[in-house]
Amino acid sequence: MQVVDLNISKNGVLQQISSLGHEQVVFCNDQHTGLKAIIAIHNTNLGPALGGTRMWKYDNEEEALRDVLRLSRGMTFKAAISGLELGGGKAVIIGDSSTEKTEVLMRKFGQFVDTLSGKYITAEDVGMTTKDMKYIRKETKYVTGIPKEMGGSGDPSPLTAYGVYWGMKGAAEYRWGKSSLEGRKILIQGVGNVGGHLLEHLSKEGAVLFINDINENKVTKVAKKYNAKIITDNIYDLDIDIYAPCALGATINSETIDRLKCSIIAGSANNQLANEKTDSVILKNKNIIYAPDFLISAGGLINVYSEIKGYNEKQVLEKTKHIYSTTIDILHKADAENLTTHEAALLLAKDIVYNKKK
Ligand code: NAD
Q1: Looking at ligand 1, which residue's alpha carbon is closest to its atom 39?
Q2: Which residues in the chain show pLDDT less than 50?
Q3: What does DSSP say about strands 87-94 and 36-43: parallel, antiparallel, or unpaired?
């Protein structure tokens, strides 16, 4: 496992790209629409690079590049560990999705995706919706997650939440000898598309729910619906059993781990560990089970993959539910080989990608 210094001003762009093993990175600029986007293709050993597009108001280009490089690498391992014939890719559009998104901008982005002739296939991520995929579809066939009425599989987030739910249950089985989450105190950070659906599963199972979100309207609405308690301050000090990060990445870091009182971390956010190497070790030493993000958040990817292969809802649900047993296998492997759970999952995924071991 490597920790790479993604400091562009110091190391140069090509150096950054090669340090994480990327095959190709495409910078997109359109004067007319103002589109500024980056498409990163990490690896295509197993198939075309599939990964969503994130629209985000990055503070600077370096931050956007860093994000797309880390996210696309995660997709390679997510596809591999889920047994999909897909490579890893991701795209970012620099801008505010609530004020700067237009059909013209989306269609221009679709044209850029099309120039890659299927080496990269896009989908939704933070800041993007199925409606945007519909616009992108007007310019390229290399897009998934398009609306059901257009023959697509729709929004992937319910399936992502379903996978996180089963991954969480796998971790619970491993830790407590029973997978039931009834009565478990669970904090969901981010009650957006994924967090909202996760909340529904956990509520049905009788978990004691705590929620946190920067969007006050949203959090108030769902708190009422699912009888969840809103937490606004000091969320990392809360006395809970499970922490589910479902907002943005890097919330698990040396500062927060010190404060966390949970037994399990299981959520959908990509790149939850600020430092993969050191943070996973600190978690292990604190006896906190970390269900690797790229393993348990694969439900949405499984769903859009099925869209390419010919959609079959039953198979998608079965494959996503399988995250339960994969999670338990990974936790056993980590224990048996004295690895962190992140390392155990990564080793397995790397074997599949680079040595084609299934
Ligand atoms: P979303 O934008 O619908 O929801 C994210 C929520 O987090 C929003 O409600 C937002 O207000 C909240 N949020 C943002 N910053 C926050 C902060 N600092 N503290 C608390 N809340 C905050 O996104 P989503 O589709 O639900 O995805 C959530 C995470 O899961 C992202 O990291 C995404 O990359 C990852 N993920 C999503 C999918 C999917 O199918 N949507 C698949 C795999 C991984």
Answers
A1: 157
A2: 1-4
A3: antiparallel
